[in-house]
Amino acid sequence: MMDPQPLARLVDSKLIREYRSTKTEIKDYYGSSRAAAEALYGRILNKKTGEPVKVESIMRRFQNRGGKSQGEMGAVYKELGRELPPLSVKPPETITVTVRGQQGQRDREWTATFKGAAAYRFSRNPSYKEFFKQLGYKPSVVEAFNGDDSSGVVITAVV
Fold first, then answer.
1. What's the rounded Cα separation, in Å, for the pair 135 and 8?
2. Which residues of the chain are under the pLDDT cut of 50?
């Protein structure tokens, strides 16, 4: 059986994600200084006591232009930003995928490289049909990869 999940997970791992990393981006995501401050509560500690800084103090940091610099707080904003949905997700210029499997008693390995627009299309809808089409197989052969065992190929790894 050609389980599409390993292929989809591999392609997903190759995508380039841009995350929020600044005070403004964090505040914009939450929509208010209060909501952003509540999300940051517990991440910012008082240097003297080691206790979490109060939500009201964090709110003031969002409302004021001054205060802690982006450099001091940058790591905290980046940490929170990676837990939020990404700002953008883009495919790399090149996606290389190797599929290992068996065809009858024979071990097989295929490697396909998608570039430019082909990488973009493949990243949006990764499938074994597109993978084998990229390798130059005839359409009649590619159509055999319909997700069941009719192609005679058993996928053992996707890297």
1. 18
2. none
